[in-house]
Amino acid sequence: MPKTQKILSAGILLIILYSLAINLPFLWEREFQGEAARRAVAALEMMERGDYLIPYIEGRPYLLKPPGYNWVLIGFFKAFGSHSEFVARLSSVTAATLCALFLALLFRAVAQPPGLIWVLPGLVFLSIPEVLDKACRAEIDMTYTLLVTLSVFSWFYLHEIRKRPYLAWTVTLAFSALGTLTKTFQAPAFLYAAVGPYLLFKRRFREIFSPAHLLGLIIYAGIFSLWFIPAARRVGAERILSAWLGEYAGRQKPLSPSGFWGHFLTFPLEYFEGHLPWILFLPGWLPRNLREDLPFPVKDLALYSLCLLAFSFPLYWILPGTRLRYLLPAVGGLVYLLSVPLYRGWERDRLPGVSLLALRLLGGLILIALPLFVYISWGRLHLRGNLWALVGFLVVTSSGLLVFFGRRARLLVPALFFFVWALKWTFAAVYFPYQERFRNHYSQAARKLALHLPPGTLLCDYRLDTPHLTYYLKYKYRRIRHMRLTKDVQSLKGCKYIITTPENLKDIPFKFKVLFKTKARKTTVILLETHETPGLQ
Description:
Helices cover 64% and strands 7% of the residues. It has 20 helices and seven strands.
């Protein structure tokens, strides 16, 4: 095997192993959190119905998101023959790994660095905290980030490096269409946030009006229409678009009581925190000789990445209803802006003094905070019997000392990757088992409810809308045959068993008996058995 092929194979293997090592530990622990149960239930109901066009949750169409990620989950459920939380989360681990490989391989093609240094962007991507958080969740974000990254940076490689505009626009807008089928129209917005300003800066904006771009738009419309036209015939185009536009309109409303200015002040800080420690290397661009010595393809990649960030970040910064994860698809731009000074620092075995000082400060704070955390959390998080967590604390401390005292780039950069891995391992070893044993609210509530329900029954959900309970009652514990979401009392006809909340009891017009009451996180769940159910069969 030629040397270049060996280096390529070794780099691919290194990225895959690092991804598995940092993402898989304790991934099987914890119940579903956030929107994960909603995604899983939608996928499982599609499989159950044999209908892969419209997602359903508890018997009602779910139109807030297109079905792209549901299709991905269905693929994983069928491939593994299981619909466990672990298998669902593997979809995000896989997406993160593929995204890291793509970023690294594109950097290899553009910068042509010697040896294994081309893996830098992939490893940086995998060790960014915001990526780590989403890679262990069965949610849309990681798959969507992969599709947007493929779309945005395929254009740069095919259009600017390979000089094949027709292929560039076709491939790019095909991936953008798949992104739209995963999380609506933000995917092309990220693409044009990079392409438009880049072409404008290069004084080539007229290329936007080229036949190649027109062909790409036709491909985009064709792929999107393959789903949208039959879906619109089924439930109505206006209904689908209203649901999507309603999502965008909601982002104008502040998420916290601090309102617009609270979001405006905290969002940059959250972004900074979510991309430590690598964001500390951005000052590496300050020396003029770095900017001047770069080959033109690398300069263009940096400019393109800067356009993506500079024209994406302000939009999410200004809208007070946005979350940090909405900006995750633009993380590829930040990764390249960080990888270039890291690459140059590796070549010279010297990192920027400002970055070294900031790293020492960060490492020192972590080393000071770690024993305090262990002391405070010893009883609360049940650390006494958690051997893996205690080993993790020792590894974090030793690797943190390397980061704190390291000066040479070729020692410090690998130590930093190891340090982030150790931090993630320790976090997972502490938090995930604790969640599984002491904070699995929905799973425990489902077990308790199941004791009061005959097997194979129909359970009606009256304005509770909790896919978590649906997943555990129907799919994991297989206690109920079907769960039906109802929004009005007329739809309760034929329901012998109902779950709802205390505030909804006054709406129910017929007699019922309270069988059981429990808590699922902050929600009080009441199980009712009805005595007077017109239409009951």
